[in-house]
# Entry
Amino acid sequence: MGGDVRILIAALSFAFFVVCPRMAGITSLIAKSTGLDLIKVTVIGTLVAIPLVVAMVLIFSRYGLIAALAFAVLTDFLSALAMKEISPKAGIETLVIALFVLIGAKVATYISKFI
# Structure
């Protein structure tokens, strides 16, 4: 399989994986609470997020899952702070989500050893 086809398949796989209900929900909340157009918030937010996604991948590859998770939690708190909606509930939700991501990644790594 040629390099061009492999990068397209890998990029498509990544694109499918990045899309998640959590992201859609928070984008909808941001658009509604600011009175801005959902599509504009999504497109501009995606462009702004590109360097953050690259940073996340580099942090993960160089320092591991815990460091990447810490970065993700930091960005969640920064999002909430930017929207002035940070609260104890948001902090707890972020922590719980982070713990589930950590546990899920560890379980996935363990299970994939058997394949």
